[in-house]
Amino acid sequence: MTSRAANLRGMYLRGTVQIGFTAVVTGAIGWIAGWRHGHSLVTIGLAVYLASLFTRGVSLQRTLGTFEAVRSRRSSGEEALTHAAGAVHHYRKLAAKRPDERERLAQMLEAQWHLLNELGKHEDALPVAREAVETCRLVAATDPGYDERLSTTLHNLAVTLERLEHTDEVPAVLEEAIAARRRVIARHDRLLATSLFNLALIHRRRREWQSALPPVEEAAAIGRRLAVEDPDQHEAAADSARSLTGVLDRLDRPEDALEAAREWAGHERALTSVRADRAPELATALFALGSLLVDANRPDEARTLLLESLEIRRRLAAEDAAHRVTLAEECSTIGQRLGAIADYEEALAVLREGLDIRRALADADTAHTDDLARELTHSARCARSYHEPELARQLAAEALAVCREHPDSTTSHALLLALQELSAAHQHLGEFEPAVALGEEVLTLLDELIADNPSYLATMLTELEQHAVLRHRVGRPQDARRTELRGVGIWEQHNSDADR
């Protein structure tokens, strides 16, 4: 029954009881006052009230069992035991008809076991302990929260078996009790780990990295232990290890971050072996681990992990076209990381793969055109740093052409980046005249951008400085001087505006 339906049912039952009670009271008052229909109203009210007992699930066996249980608690010795046996008898009948009432039976059996032990009747306590265990097992099968009671009844059974020297059975019973207790502890630990993870998350959002470290370390330690005992806990453990990796990286503890990333990747591998839907998370973990290995100057292992991450992304994109955008993004970042370990040939091949995907996406949907322009510029910058200046010039020229051919589908910022990179590529090739012409376009575009967004001011000052140097190189000292003075004027104007 849903919560909403249960609430409605409860409301109707309370209303029925209230109506019956009101009818009885009103009828009784009317009857005393001489109203001839008062007796009838009392009769109707009682009938309604009695009918509500059945709809409320009132049971004779439950009522009798509760009566015997109360008498047992108020008595002692043999009398208490007799009443406890009576309560068990009624609750056993009730549980046979209503399995959801087994908990009452289990509790009463445990009470009966304690009374038998107090009276030294250990032989009689054995079947009671066995029945209590079986009942608790049935309850725990549908309610994992009952494991604690199951553990207790198993311990009681072990005590009785030991007293009766049935020692062969004791180890198995205690092992089951320990397993049940471990499940209880694990549930508490999972809740604790979740709370610790959430606390660390709050500190991370506030960029309080040092404060985030203790809770996320403890959450990761709990997750590590639980995952060994229960493979279903690898997901929570992976989340904690991922968070710990990020915090340690922020705190500039590279070796510790590397170990946390290894643990994260290990959890993701374990998950992916049984759940194919975790493949994207595994790729992310492998990339993070590979990147940290790049920073740690371990190129061979880094290259292996980065390419494994890329291969997972390729497989996902082959299975579902929706993953192609992610594959293109990964080609960009992995290409850059491969370049950082001087594997330029592989890096350029990966960058080209990403560009091919971007071109296909842009051909199919102009919404991807701006991403294509930006990625061409990024790849050009990478090619220039990989000692491929001609390729860099070609890619930057293509980026600029995309921006000019699709002004409605690309942003001014993408155009700015393309102009800057093409100018840099020409300078790298020693072609300063084309670089000067492109630099002038950059300055013109920045004038337009600053009018709407003053944050471009720093970029403008940097470009003016570089442009002045270029003009000196091509033999235009007067133009260079004017450019320098323009930069000084803009800076002074900015300071003047700031002082107001």
UniProtKB/TrEMBL annotation:
Q: Does the keyword Manganese apply?
A: no
Keywords in alphabetical order, please. Membrane, Repeat, TPR repeat, Transmembrane, Transmembrane helix
**Can you tell me where the transmembrane regions are?**
12-33
From the Swiss-Prot or TrEMBL record, give the protein name.
Tetratricopeptide repeat protein
